Amino acid sequence: MILDVTEEYVDQLISIDSSSGGYPWGTRNINKVCNQKNWGAYLFLFENLPAGFIVFQRILDEASILHLAVHKGFQQRGVAKKLLHYFIEECGKRSIASVFLEVRESNLNAIKLYASFGFQEIGIRRNYYPTSEGFENGLDMAMYVN
User: Fold this and answer.
1) Catalytic site residue 129?
2) Among 12, 34, 36, 63, which residue has the fewest nearby CB atoms (within 10 Å)?
């Protein structure tokens, strides 16, 4: 089941984010989800347990995926794929023409997932993401919603 995120779900997003591995988005950013104009999020429940979420921003006929996280215990079960599919369907219903995102250059699984939905690389952000050893590039990707 996929739900629109309201303030009552913020703690679940924080829990997923901190347990997803990698580089969490952080409590401060997640708390903004319900309080920023044009921001939104969807929460995926796997057998009624919070498994993943996607945060996005919509402006006019464009949307940007700001963060997608899956709880470590639910990874490799298609959660990210289902969230992305749902998000893109909702964009189509709302006359969103283009979707943009940035992804760590080292996140090959995410890049492969996005490409399977029609996202294409449109640019590189040099030294965009912090790492334990310095910085790594971010890939800018975009797709057009039918």
Assistant:
1) no
2) 36
* Phi, psi dihedrals of residue 12, rounded to the nearest 5°: -70, -40
pLDDT grade, residue 8 (50/70/90)?
confident
Dihedral in degrees, nearest 10, Cα atoms 13, 143, 80, 59: 20
Count of structural domains, the chain = 1
Is 121 assigned a catalytic role? no
As a whole number of Å, the CA-based R_g of the chain is 15
Query: pTM for the complete prediction?
Result: 0.89
Q: How confident is the model over 21-70, as pLDDT tens digits?
A: 677 777 777 777 767 778 888 999 988 889 999 999 999 999 999 999 99
The CATH number assigned to the domain holding 9 equals 3.40.630.30
Write the CA distances from 117 to 17, 95, 99, 140, 144, integer angstroms: 23, 18, 11, 15, 10
- Of 9, 114, 129, 136, the active-site residue reads 114
Q: What are phi and psi of 60, to 5 degrees?
A: 55, -120
Q: List the catalytic residue out of 9, 42, 90, 102.
A: 102
